[in-house]
């Protein structure tokens, strides 16, 4: 039987529709959510992501605040925009598009953001909340992966999940998310120091490939019926090359393609984080009134 496609594009469209009513309710209460973005430099891929995020916002009624700096920007320049977005009441949540140019310390930037406006869930306070298992914004790609699996009824509780890649936007927070009591998966986080990746992959019920190595996961290392999600992004001749080889679809039970799988879910979860932050702010006001 051919693998079921985990269609992130269609699922994200459904989520945007669901969010529209919540944005309307917030707007009617005078609390229209607004997403800010800061793009530093001129990488075409990053620009595409930022533009797509704003086009998603327009679809659901979220206001857009776009800031840009040149590739030569200093840490001080970036922190200046971060301070501006922290103070702007129209900006209820924002992101700094990653990666940043080499001369700008990514961690100093994330730390300077107002954690209540951190729409990416990457501020140290919010990553700490993820570790503690308390409410807060969750990193968009990991929560998008969990949501995609949930909407296709792919079980993660008790499952052996192998995540390949330990970056801060995907692998590391995904391991934390999947091992919470609510998800209850057993997670093995593989990386460049892993001695026998194939052995880990062969025993996995769910594989999340986020290494950025084209064709890393091949059919011969996938357990029949496993769910395989391709999150790796490399560009080969201008086209996206994922981490998962095409022949995996002949063995797997579920496949999240790339493009069209986890990427659109990342964007949908960003919108969800913005809406949740605005709803939390309203709830906090009601409590203190
Ligand atoms: N501040 C952040 N920076 C980055 C993040 C992040 O979550 N926050 N993740 C990635 C990039 N990313 C979001 O910014 C992202 C990746 C992919 C997609 C997407 O929709 N991809 C499409 C195809 C896009 C194409 O054709 O080039 C798909 O998969 O179908 C959206 C956002 C790194 N930086």
TrEMBL record:
It comes from the Bacteria. Residues 139-280 form the Tetrahydrofolate dehydrogenase/cyclohydrolase NAD(P)-binding domain. It catalyses: (6R)-5,10-methenyltetrahydrofolate + H2O = (6R)-10-formyltetrahydrofolate + H(+); (6R)-5,10-methylene-5,6,7,8-tetrahydrofolate + NADP(+) = (6R)-5,10-methenyltetrahydrofolate + NADPH. InterPro entries: Aminoacid_DH-like_N_sf, NAD(P)-bd_dom_sf, THF_DH/CycHdrlase, THF_DH/CycHdrlase_cat_dom, THF_DH/CycHdrlase_NAD-bd_dom. The keyword Methyltransferase does not apply. NADP(+) binds at residues 165-167, 233. One of its GO terms (cellular component) is cytosol. Pfam families: THF_DHG_CYH, THF_DHG_CYH_C. Catalyzes the oxidation of 5,10-methylenetetrahydrofolate to 5,10-methenyltetrahydrofolate and then the hydrolysis of 5,10-methenyltetrahydrofolate to 10-formyltetrahydrofolate. Homodimer. Belongs to the tetrahydrofolate dehydrogenase/cyclohydrolase family. NCBIfam families: PRK14193.1 (NF010789). HAMAP family: THF_DHG_CYH (MF_01576). This is Bifunctional protein FolD. The gene is folD.
